[in-house]
Amino acid sequence: MKTLAIIARKGGTGKTTLAVHLAVAAHASGYVTLLADTDRQHSAVEWRRMRQLSEPAVEAVKPGALFARQQEAARAGVGLLVVDTGPSVEEEVEQAVRCADLCLVVARPNFFDIRAVADSAALAARFHKPVVFVLNQAPHRQQSIEAPVLMEAVAALRALGFPVAPIGLRTRVAYQRSVAHGSTAQDLEPSSSAASEITALWSWVEGRLHADRPTVRAPTFMAADDRPASVML
After folding, report:
1. Full set of structural domains in the chain with CATH
2. In this structure, are residues 41 and 60 in contact, taking their beta carbons and an 8 Å threshold?
3. What is the signed CA dihedral for 45, 47, 48, 53, rounded to 10 degrees?
């Protein structure tokens, strides 16, 4: 079993949106998936209550009980444990980091988020865990040119010494609209740009989780544009 921790010391970065979308993508690709909601607000659990489909499983798990739940899940045949964490409380996020095979640190391309993610990355590095930054709410290209603020964010994240996922999430209504109804972009609009984006990101993350599998090649820039991701790769 592999464990993927979604972390960020700052609230509002989109951790839960990313967590539920990746959990659904993993389930669709054949993984028995469990999403452990360790955030005190339990947004992922609320999302699950609204969801009409039975998978993936979502449970509220206290940070202190995460290791035990991880062991139980492995014995039960779960293939992927996704851990959604809350902001700010380092001791609670630390439990997720300790259990993780890979930590995704989520940030939006703005000054405040970029400053905040350094602490999250340092926490994971302290426990010798692989760290990848994932950009969320990236602006769209204008005439095939990326916004300067996005390129500056990529450079700033790289300067922290950790890789940036070559596929991030654009600002898309589909993400918020779907999550508000217990669904995901790939559930509601499987042929949409948002769905292709998530599928491509999950494929890349899966490659990072399994060192013996090739990582999906992606464009040099960090976020898929409005074309389907399959065209981009």
Report:
1. 2-232 (3.40.50.300)
2. no
3. -170
In Å, what is the CA distance from 213 to each residue of 5, 102, 205, 206?
A: 20, 15, 11, 8
Q: Give CA separation, 189 vs 30, 64, 129, 179, 183, in Å.
A: 20, 37, 34, 12, 10
Gap between the terminal Cα atoms of the chain: 27
Amino acid letter for position 178: S
pLDDT tens digits for range 23-58: 999 999 999 999 999 999 999 999 999 998 889 999
**Predicted TM-score of the model (pTM):** 0.89
CA 26 to CA 28: how far, in whole Å? 5
DSSP codes, 125-141: HHTT--EEEEE-SBPPP
Please report the sign of the dihedral spanned by the C-alpha atoms of residue 86, residue 120, residue 70, residue 23. Answer: positive
Return the higher-pLDDT residue of 70 and 92: 70
pLDDT at res. 90: 78
Q: Which SS3 state, helix, strand or coil, does residue 119 take? A: helix
pLDDT digits (tens, 9 = 90+) for 93-147: 999 999 999 999 999 998 888 888 888 888 888 999 999 999 999 999 888 888 9
Q: How many whole angstroms from its chain centre is CA 71?
A: 22
